[in-house]
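Example for tutorial group B:
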């Protein structure tokens, strides 16, 4: 028998997440004039839960915001991190349409209270069943670390949102696990906004955007941070990456080949930041002008 609530939660039933709505009506005034519609709770046919848990879901269902005709909503109940490290989002799927609701496949995005995107995933929902007209049904969605754009998810104030527009063409920031751990949330926000502002590379193009560069004189090293931008339809895996760096004068100040182990994965339509350290042996100019610089893979020489 499945269980979704602890004893303490059963004694203090509150909705921890927010609600998101989509409407089939284009005219907002028409939507407001229809008045509110009540939804009736039902459970997935694959679920086996106790009467006490069913009663808990009913009490939480009563806490949900009113809906108007022609809407669908996701109402957040709670989020927990399980033993496997996945984030389990327990929600109500509600709708106010006069026909049954069946969802075979759905893409959901996670948002925080500032409406920043925290993660995204596409789910197959064969076991969800059909929700009767004007119905409500609980469901649990699991997000793994690879589905998240951040290291932490707030326990309260989050919401799941139906991703209605195609995601594949939306260029976004993708941080590796190590970057998510060490980069403060505010810096992650700034980097994400920068990616949005710069816009995507041309379709099919992979390019490099410089974030920062500095000479570490004590160690005679050049440290640079790059944003690797993948405008293609497929994930790229970088194992060996040759790089050339030019300063403001256009002179090559450093060059070398970097071995990435484990390989660096940059998903389709995403930008991923990475750090590169050029040791003394790779540096060609000891006092470069880094007021302006660029880094790029050298062009392959054509065979004679």
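The residue assignment follows.
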């Amino acid at each position: 028998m499945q269980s979704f609530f602890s004893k303490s939660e059963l004694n203090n039933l509150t909705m921890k997440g927010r609600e998101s709505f989509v409407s089939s009506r284009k005219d907002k005034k028409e939507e407001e004039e229809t008045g509110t519609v009540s939804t009736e709770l039902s459970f997935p046919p694959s679920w086996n839960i106790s009467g006490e848990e069913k009663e808990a879901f009913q009490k939480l269902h009563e806490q949900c915001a009113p809906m108007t005709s022609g809407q669908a909503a996701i109402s957040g109940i709670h989020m927990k991190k399980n033993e496997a490290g996945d984030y389990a989002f327990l929600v109500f799927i509600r709708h106010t349409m006069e026909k049954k609701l069946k969802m075979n496949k759905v893409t959901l995005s996670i948002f925080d209270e500032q409406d920043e995107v925290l993660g995204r995933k596409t789910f197959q929902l064969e076991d969800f069943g059909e929700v009767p007209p004007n119905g409500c049904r609980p469901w649990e969605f699991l997000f793994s670390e690879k589905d998240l754009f951040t290291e932490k998810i707030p326990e309260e104030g989050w919401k799941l949102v139906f991703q209605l527009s195609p995601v594949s063409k939306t260029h976004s920031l993708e941080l590796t696990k190590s970057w998510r751990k060490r980069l403060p949330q505010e810096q992650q926000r700034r980097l994400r906004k920068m990616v949005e502002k710069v816009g995507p590379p041309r379709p099919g193009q992979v390019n490099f955007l410089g974030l920062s560069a500095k000479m570490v004189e004590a160690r005679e090293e050049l440290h640079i941070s790059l944003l690797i931008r993948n405008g293609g339809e497929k994930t790229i895996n970088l194992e060996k990456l040759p790089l050339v760096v030019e300063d403001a004068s256009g002179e090559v100040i450093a060059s070398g080949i970097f071995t990435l182990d484990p390989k660096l994965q940059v998903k389709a339509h995403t930008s991923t930041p990475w750090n590169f350290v050029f040791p003394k042996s790779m540096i060609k100019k000891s006092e470069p002008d880094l007021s302006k610089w660029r880094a790029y893979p050298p062009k392959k020489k054509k065979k004679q």
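The chain has a mean pLDDT of 91. Compare this with the pattern of hydrophobic and polar residues in the output above.
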